[in-house]
Design a protein that fits this description.
Chain lengths: 171, 570
C-alpha cells in the first residue's frame, strides 16, 4: 500500500486551465485531498487571457503521480496536463536572498553573485540582498555556497517551466 | 427587450431539459423560485430534510436514467445536501442540486444562512458553479445538466445568489455546450477492441465482472449477448446487480466481501477477466495483491482515472460500456470460434463450487424469523418483479444475495459511500415517476431512523412505498465485525430502546404490520402488498444472524468465512 510518505520522485506538472475564479482551488483541493503536498506552485496568465498556466511540483511514485495527473485531467476546468518528467523542458525560479556580508567577505560574495549571474538589489553595511534566477539545481548550488556566510532571510517564487521546442527522441 | 427574472429563467431551463419533478425544501433564499415553480406545471416534492431530497432525486435518477433535480435554500439547506451529493457522485448518478445563496454583495460577510457551499461541496461533486449574473444563468444550467449526465455521470451543484435570481435578463437557452477542457471519451479504440475480442476467443476460463457502468450506459442487452455468444459466466458488483439477469444460467451472483462462493472462486481461478463499468473497489477485490492471480485483466470504463487505479490492467479500453461491448460483438461476428471445449469444464468447476458452498442459511431453526427468509418471501410474493431499494448494512447484503434481479435499475442501493438513510427517500424518488410499481425499501432498524421523517412525504404525496425492516435490535453489520473480530464486545451497537415501528407508522398516517414468528412473514408481506398506501413492515428477526460468505478485511477473495465450511475436496 502506497502512502503519501512514500515519496519517490519529484514531478513538475504543467497545467493549462480556464482562467476563472475557483480553478486554482479545485487543483489544490484535488492534490491535498489525497494527502499530497504541493511543493511549489506558480500561476500566471498565458497569451490567451481565458487560459492560465499552473506549474506545480508534487512528489510521489509513478503510479501516484499518474493517478494525480489523470484526476487533474478530469477536472472540468483543466484543459491540458503535462508531466514534464516525460519530456525535456526548461525551468526557472527566482529567489531573493539576504546574505550576511561582513568586511572581508563582501568581495567573495560579489564574485559568487557574478558566477551565478545574480544581481544585488539591496545593500546595507552588514548585508547584501541578491536576486538569482535559474533552474532548481543552480539555485540550490548558489544557496548552498551563500549559506556559508549566513543567510538572514530568503524568499522564492514557485517554479515555472516550459517544454523545449526540440525534443530529442527518447526511449 | 423581453426579459425574464432569474427565477423564471431557471424554470424555463428546467423545462428545456425535460425536468418534470423537483425535490427539495424551501427557504428565504429560494422563495422567489418557489413562487414561480408553483404555477409552472412542474411537480415539486417537499421532502422533510434536504439530505433526503437529494437521495430522492438520486433514486429518481437511478430508476429513470434522467438527472434528478433538487432545490434547497442557502446555508443549512445547502450543507444538508452534502451526504446526498457525495453518495450520488460516488455511485456515478446524475443529480443536480440548485442551492439558494445570499445576494452577491453579502457573500463573504457571514450573512444570515450564508455558507460557501461551492467550497464545501467541491470535493464531493463532479463539478459545481456559483452563478455570478442573471445573464450567465441559462448557459450555466445547460452546462450543469451536460456535465452531470455525460461521461461518467455525477453530482453537480449550482449556487444561486438571491439577487441573481431576482435580476432580469433575456432568456436564451444555448443549443449545445462546448467545453474545451471536458470531452468525454465514448468511442472505443478499434485496436483495443480487436485485442479484447481476440483474448476472449482464446480464453479457457473467462469471467465477466460487471459493475454499475453496465446499467448507466444501458449495456445490459449487449452484455447478455456477449455472455451467451461465448458462454462466459458473469458476476456482478453490488452496483451492477440487475445488469445481467440474476436467474440466468451464466449468472454467478455478486462477488466481493459478501459475494457468493462460486463468484469469488471464479475470480481467483479465471484466466481472463473482462471488467465492464466497474472500478475494482476494495469491497470487491479483497486483498489486492492476491486478487485474480491467474487472470489477464481487460478493463472497459468510461473514466480514465479508473484504469490502473487499483490493479494493473493488461488491456484497458476507455469507452462507454455499451459502445465498447457493441464494438467487441461486432469484431467477434455472429459465430466466432472460441475455446468451446474447455468451457464445459470451467462451467462445471463453477457448478462444483456452488455445490460445495451454495448461498444458503440454516433453515432448520424455527425459534424465530431468519432475515434471509424475509428477503425470500419478498422475492416470491413479488414474483421477482419489485424494485428493491435498500439502506446500508446486513439487510442490504441479504437483499443483494437473496433477491435475484433480472432487470437493470431494479436494485437501487448506496454502494460507494454506503449511506444509511438512503433507502426510504430513494424509494420515494422511484415511485414519483412510477406510482404503479411495487417498490420495497429493505431496511434495518438502525438505518430506517436516519430518514424516517420521509414517511410524511410518502403519505402526503401518496407514494406507496413498502418498507421492510429487518429488526434485529442492533446495528448488525458493525456488530457482525465485533462478534467475529472484536471479542464480541458490542460497543455502541445495541439498540435496546428502538421505537414501536407499527405505532410510528401509524403516527405518520401510514400502515404498520409486525411479524415475530416465521409463519407470519408471508402474511405480513401479502398484507403490505395489498395495501394501496405506504406500509412499514416490522420483522423481528433473530439478532445473531451473520452475513455469509464473508471475506475478512485484508484477506483474499478465496479466503471466505462460510457459515458451513465446505469439506476439503480431495
Amino acid at each position: 500500500m502506497e502512502t503519501p510518505s512514500d515519496s519517490h520522485q519529484r514531478h513538475t506538472l504543467s497545467l493549462l486551465v480556464d482562467n476563472r475564479p475557483g480553478v486554482l482551488a479545485r487543483v489544490a483541493t484535488l492534490v491535498s485531498g489525497r494527502g499530497y503536498n504541493i511543493e511549489s506552485l506558480s500561476v500566471s496568465e498565458t497569451m490567451d487571457p481565458a487560459v492560465s498556466l499552473i506549474t506545480l511540483i508534487v512528489s510521489g511514485s509513478p503510479r501516484i503521480v499518474s493517478q494525480i495527473v489523470k484526476q487533474l485531467r478530469k477536472l472540468i476546468n483543466v484543459i491540458k496536463v503535462s508531466d514534464l518528467a516525460e519530456v525535456d523542458y526548461v525551468e526557472r525560479q527566482l529567489v531573493i536572498v539576504r546574505v550576511r556580508a561582513q568586511n572581508g567577505h563582501r568581495e567573495e560574495i560579489m564574485r559568487l553573485c557574478e558566477i551565478f549571474r545574480g544581481k544585488v538589489i539591496d545593500v546595507s553595511n552588514k548585508t547584501y540582498t541578491i536576486e538569482i534566477t535559474g533552474g532548481q539545481d543552480k539555485i540550490r548550488a548558489a544557496l548552498n555556497l551563500l549559506s556559508e556566510f549566513g543567510i538572514e532571510e530568503q524568499v522564492s517564487t514557485g517554479l515555472t517551466a516550459m517544454p523545449r521546442s526540440f525534443q530529442p527522441s527518447r526511449k | 427587450m423581453n426579459t425574464l427574472s432569474g427565477a423564471e429563467i431557471l424554470i424555463e431551463c428546467w423545462k428545456k431539459e425535460g425536468v418534470r419533478v423537483v425535490f427539495g425544501y424551501p427557504g428565504a433564499a429560494t422563495i422567489d423560485i418557489h413562487h414561480h415553480l408553483e404555477v409552472s406545471g412542474l411537480r415539486f416534492v417537499l421532502c422533510r430534510h434536504e439530505q433526503a431530497a437529494v437521495h430522492a432525486a438520486d433514486g429518481y435518477a437511478r430508476f429513470t436514467g434522467r438527472p434528478g433535480v433538487v432545490l434547497v435554500t442557502s446555508g443549512p439547506g445547502a450543507t444538508n445536501t452534502i451526504t446526498g451529493l457525495a453518495g450520488a457522485n460516488m455511485d456515478s448518478v446524475p443529480v443536480i442540486v440548485f442551492s439558494g445563496q445570499v445576494s452577491r454583495l453579502l457573500i463573504g460577510n457571514d450573512a444570515f444562512q450564508e455558507v460557501d457551499i461551492v467550497g464545501v461541496s467541491r470535493p464531493v461533486t463532479k463539478h459545481n458553479y456559483l452563478v455570478l449574473s442573471t445573464e450567465e444563468l441559462a448557459p450555466t444550467v445547460k452546462e450543469a445538466f451536460y456535465v452531470a449526465a455525460s461521461g461518467r455521470p455525477g453530482a453537480v451543484l449550482v449556487d444561486l445568489p438571491k439577487d441573481v435570481i431576482n435580476g432580469r435578463a433575456e432568456f436564451r437557452y444555448p443549443r449545445k455546450v462546448d467545453l474545451r477542457a471536458y470531452q468525454p471519451h465514448l468511442a472505443p479504440h478499434p485496436k483495443q477492441v480487436a485485442k479484447v475480442a481476440d483474448l476472449l476467443k482464446k480464453a479457457r476460463k473467462p469471467l465477466v465482472y460487471a459493475g454499475g457502468g453496465v446499467i448507466s450506459s444501458g449495456a445490459g442487452e449487449e452484455l447478455l449477448k456477449l455472455a451467451e455468444l461465448l458462454e462466459i459466466p458473469v458476476t456482478n458488483t453490488l452496483m451492477g446487480l440487475g445488469g445481467f439477469p440474476g436467474t440466468h444460467r451464466l449468472s454467478l451472483g455478486m462477488l466481493g466481501m459478501h459475494g457468493l462462493y462460486r463468484a469469488n472462486m471464479a475470480v481467483q481461478m479465471a484466466d481472463i477477466i473482462l471488467a465492464v463499468g466497474a472500478r475494482f473497489d476494495d469491497r470487491v477485490t479483497g486483498a489486492i495483491d492476491h486478487f485474480a492471480p491467474e487472470a489477464v485483466i481487460i478493463h472497459i470504463d468510461v473514466d480514465t482515472t479508473s484504469i490502473h487505479k487499483v490493479v494493473d490492467v493488461d488491456v484497458p479500453l476507455v469507452a462507454d460500456a455499451r459502445q465498447a461491448l457493441l464494438a467487441v460483438l461486432e469484431s467477434l461476428g455472429p459465430a466466432p470460434e472460441f475455446e468451446r471445449g474447455s468451457r464445459a469444464e470451467w462451467l462445471g468447476q463453477i457448478d462444483a463450487w456452488n455445490k460445495e458452498a451454495p448461498l444458503d442459511y440454516d433453515r432448520g431453526q424455527t425459534a424465530g424469523i431468519k432475515p434471509q427468509m424475509v428477503i425470500e418471501s419478498l422475492y416470491r410474493l413479488t414474483k421477482g418483479k419489485a424494485v428493491v431499494v435498500t439502506e446500508v448494512g446486513q439487510h442490504q447484503m441479504w437483499a443483494a444475495q437473496y433477491y435475484l434481479f433480472d432487470s437493470p435499475r431494479q436494485f437501487i442501493t448506496s454502494g460507494g459511500l454506503g449511506v444509511m438513510g438512503f433507502g426510504l427517500p430513494a424509494a420515494l424518488g422511484v415511485l414519483v415517476d412510477n406510482p404503479d410499481a411495487t417498490v420495497i425499501d429493505v431496511a434495518g432498524d438502525g438505518s430506517i431512523l436516519m430518514n424516517i421523517q420521509e414517511l410524511t412525504t410518502a403519505v402526503q404525496d401518496n407514494l406507496p412505498v413498502k418498507v421492510a425492516i429487518l429488526n434485529n435490535g442492533c446495528l448488525g453489520m458493525v456488530r457482525q465485525w465485533q462478534q467475529l473480530f472484536y471479542d464480541a464486545r458490542y460497543a455502541a451497537t445495541v439498540l435496546q430502546t428502538g421505537p414501536d415501528f407499527v405505532k410510528l407508522a401509524e403516527a405518520f398516517g401510514a400502515k404498520g404490520f409486525r411479524a415475530t414468528r416465521p409463519d407470519e412473514v408471508d402474511k405480513v408481506v401479502e398484507r403490505a402488498l395489498a395495501e394501496p398506501g405506504p406500509v412499514l413492515m416490522d420483522f423481528h428477526v433473530l439478532p445473531h444472524e451473520l452475513v455469509y460468505p464473508m471475506v475478512p478485511g485484508g484477506k483474499a477473495l478465496d479466503e471466505m468465512i462460510l457459515e458451513k465450511m465446505p469439506e476439503p475436496s480431495s
